[in-house]
Amino acid sequence: MTENGPHPAAKAPDAAEQIECSSIPNGSGGSTANTRLYKRRWAIVFLFSVYSLSNAYQWIQYGIISNIIMKFYNVELFAVDWLSMIYMLTYIPFIFPVTWLLDKKGLRVTALMANALNCAGTWIKVASARPDLFGVTMLGQFASSLSQVFILGMPSRLASVWFGADEVSTACSIGVFGNQMGIAIGFLIPPILVPNVDDVNELAYHIKIMFYISAGVATVIFVLVVIVFQERPEIPPTQAQAQARSILPDEYSYTASILRLLRNKPFMLLVVSYGLNVGCFYAVSTLLNRMIIEHYPGEEVNAGRIGLTIVIAGMVGSLICGIWLDKTKTYKQTTFIVYILSLVAMLVYAFTLNQGHLWVVFLTAGLLGLFMTGYLPLGFEFAVELTYPESEGTSSGLLNCSAQIFGIIFTISQGKIIDKWGTLAGNIFLSIFLLIGTIITGLIKSDLRRQKANLQAEVQTVSSTGSVQDYGATASGSHWQRQS
């Protein structure tokens, strides 16, 4: 959101790309700020979604074939789990310097850093397709996990910088959509590319093919980002963005912004509830192969398909929620209802997993994904509303930091519980924390600051327009002034 600090002027798109220009009062003294939407905004958000997809795919590509990876590298299952959990662990110490960089240098520098690291990680993995190089594959995964730190906090920031007030939630959902699609592909493709064979040389060949494909895709995306990705539109899309740009560099302090967020009680409640929900999703995703194989031996491919079902359903939920928020602005109500449904879906999944019917698991996992994954953009957008005019990158970063912490705790704890007491106990463990998150969500006070800023600007626009009419508009001007 806020373009704090000096930024180089963004290259303006051609006139043919420009639409919907208006003049809106900005601050006091009668000065105005133009707002404009650019067609390029769709290319920017879709390109972001594509490189987020590439990075998210790498998060889950080991976990969904954990039994095969464990056999190939001759390591413990817990070590394979860390190939997923390193994404969560890396995020925690690096989020604050990365959000500072996002505030100071903006979207383009952040996008370039994300893709450089993502591309590097994929090529390091290409070199790790040997049974004695588990440490190298962990290094590649570390580079990819560092890239994720530059990616996860961007959807809400990108949406606010490029999109109109009635589009930001949809745009944020599209940004999250890419991440979810990457997880979906990560569930689907590795079990197909890497069959569970006993010959180590054949297994190494299949694993190298998987790594080469992801490296080639990441390289193409990196080139596209260098060529296409733009910092921001020359003219802001909303009055809220115009006001944010008016903040002088000397008036903004990153540390002071963090402290204000930590003192924002509704936001901090959201940080905890978001972390509980998304942490549960991380644990389920990481341990899905283990849970399915325990009850349905030899079904590695179907375990991937079940993971795909979770995420595809979640993408549908994300888009529906994003469009719904843009239409209704019912942030707390929608978040609360989706949280309750996530809890219900988790309980249904927990009690039906061991019934011996894979089609039932597909169905219940789809319901779980619809609500639990659909919650992701709701949390981002609700946070922006509660924290405006603070930077979206900072608020999103704190949300994701909470999710990574709970994700590590839940993944390790649920794994231990499954080993000792089985999958039902492990899933009940997660359900308890979803219940706690639901209660916390109900306690959040809905203070929609960004909506207030945009509504105030609209009222001021109508009032200002009405007061300068010469043509028998005195009464009309008075009417709008009374309303404002």
Automatic annotation (TrEMBL):
Gene3D superfamilies: MFS general substrate transporter like domains
Subcellular localization: Cell membrane; Endoplasmic reticulum membrane; Mitochondrion membrane
One GO term describing the cellular component: mitochondrial membrane
Keyword DNA-binding appears in the UniProt entry: no
Protein's membrane topology: Multi-pass membrane protein
A molecular function GO annotation: heme transmembrane transporter activity
GO biological process: heme export
Catalyzed reactions per annotation: ethanolamine(in) = ethanolamine(out); choline(out) = choline(in); heme b(in) = heme b(out)
Keywords carried by this UniProt record: Cell membrane, Endoplasmic reticulum, Membrane, Mitochondrion, Receptor, Transmembrane, Transmembrane helix, Transport
Record domain Major facilitator superfamily (MFS) profile: where: 44-449
Transmembrane stretches, start-end: 42-62, 82-102, 168-189, 209-229, 267-285, 305-324, 336-352, 358-378, 398-418, 424-444
Similarity-based family: Belongs to the major facilitator superfamily. Feline leukemia virus subgroup C receptor (TC 2.A.1.28.1) family.
Function: Choline uniporter that specifically mediates choline uptake at the blood-brain-barrier. Responsible for the majority of choline uptake across the blood-brain-barrier from the circulation into the brain. Choline, a nutrient critical for brain development, is a precursor of phosphatidylcholine, as well as betaine. Also mediates transport of ethanolamine. Choline and ethanolamine transport is not coupled with proton transport and is exclusively driven by the choline gradient across the plasma membrane. Also acts as a heme b transporter.
Name of this chain's protein: Feline leukemia virus subgroup C receptor-related protein 2
Organism in which the protein naturally occurs: Scomber scombrus (Atlantic mackerel)
